[in-house]
Amino acid sequence: MEDNIGDVSVVLGADNVKYYIEKDHIPSDIVIIHKNFNKRFNRDDVALIHLKRSAEVLSFRYHIPEIFDILPNLECEIAGYGSKHTLRTNSLILYSGKTRLISNDECASSMSVLLARDTICTKNRGTAPCGGDSGGPLFCGGYLVGVVSHGPVCHMIEMPSVYAFTPRYKKWIGRATTSYKGL
Hints:
By secondary structure, the chain is mainly beta.
């Protein structure tokens, strides 16, 4: 499903978007949203951004694993430009922090909701995604295992954050990137 969600662009390699170099700013031409995306239930909360021009390949890459065992208490890292506090504007500075995986059973129990099997959860006091971090990465052991989907009010103590579990979308990403002309 293609969707016109407004102007979407990417800034590569910047830890402060106020001082990025113009060549690092790349606008998109289309955004491909998963055909089964359900906003009400945050199901299949993933999208792909096709850039208008090629990006310079970075010296490091995070791969999406074929299989990834969700090991409770595994330390992972998150990053984003979201606000640091509830109802504030997004940050110009890239923030990152450590967090830990929890089982989806613990996550669902903490949030009193039924979680889809295409999610992964973290919980760590003081380190959580906030408004503006949606779509941001969850890295574990050198792999991209999630992208920020949803959670409670920013930095709510001891409440989990929910991510789209990227290994479940690897085949969809492959199909989507080959089925669109010009990709």
